[in-house]
Amino acid sequence: MRPFFAVGLVFAGCCSNVIFLELLARKHPGCGNIVTFAQFLFIAVEGFLFEADLGRKQPAIPIRYYAIMVTMFFTVSVVNNYALNLNIAMPLHMIFRSGSLIANMVLGIIILKKRYSIFKYTSIALVSVGIFICTFMSAKQVTSQSSLSENDGFQAFAWWLLGIGALTFALLMSARMGIFQETLYKQFGKHSKEALFYNHALPLPGFIFLASDIYDHAVLFNKSELYQVPVVGVEVPIMWFYLLMNVVTQYVCIRGVFILTTECASLTVTLFVTLRKFVSLIFSILYFQNPFTLWHWLGTLFVFIGTLMYTEVWTNLGATKSQPQKEDKKN
């Protein structure tokens, strides 16, 4: 029963989280810092109360290792959210972040000296081609939409190019963090709930450097139109409501993934997370009417087929189905 509950949390939390993030970004594209801060603060407070036992529980993994992991995690979160302010549309943002397999494979080959099968190299090639198609078509849209004058078009394309650079950097940094986390878990054991708390609590002082931007957006949020919260009946500025829902759904998403990792194999987790991204993408395109051409659909198809090939879903599911038959023969 718990796996079904976890899958429900992942789809409900993660998909609705993307919706509220897009609602925030459409109104104020540069609100990434305040969104990141709110998410980190909420998860840190919850972890301090229930995981760290008000600071009385000693961490299983030494703090110095968390400090390294936190630096990478904080950088990835801030850069990913800030990319939305650089002419990066939400669908492209989601597709690009789905390319984490490429970064993981490249860094795995370079750092861990891993070798992969032809099947996996083919899947990564599909993901790469898919992301290239979506990125190329988005570049054409940015220049055409901003072609009121030659200078405006070039400036919009330059900002978009910077956004692609930011997403690429965040992708590689995230993959490096995953490899570092993998080596820590091998040495000290898996403590994902503890890592979740420290990854969100330790970076909080770093937001001091972003305080002015966070304050400016807080003022903008206060000036947004009032919205009556259902059930409660209280009126609040609608941007604060969107932010609250984004934070809550982010927590639900993370908790769902955490429960799923404890109940299911990593292959199953990867499959459901990939399907969740696809559902979020479809909803973003249909509900927000984001521009999406046939080329974008083709690129998206390549990305998700490549992801499923990499996880060898069909092979593993076939093996799982054949196991009960073998057991029956033995009996």
From TrEMBL:
Matches recorded under PANTHER family: NUCLEOTIDE SUGAR TRANSPORTER SLC35B4, SOLUTE CARRIER FAMILY 35 MEMBER B
Main location (coarse class): membrane
Organism the protein comes from: Rousettus aegyptiacus (Egyptian fruit bat)
Transport recorded as keyword: yes
Family: Belongs to the nucleotide-sugar transporter family. SLC35B subfamily.
Molecular functions (GO terms): UDP-N-acetylglucosamine transmembrane transporter activity; UDP-xylose transmembrane transporter activity
Keywords, sorted A to Z: Membrane, Sugar transport, Transmembrane, Transmembrane helix, Transport
Name this polypeptide is given: Solute carrier family 35 member B4
Pfam families: UAA
Superkingdom, natural source: Eukaryota
Compartments where found: Endomembrane system
Topology in membrane: Multi-pass membrane protein
A single cellular component GO annotation: endoplasmic reticulum membrane
Transmembrane segments: 32-51, 63-83, 119-138, 158-175, 196-215, 227-245, 257-288, 294-313
InterPro entries for the chain: SCL35B1-4/HUT1
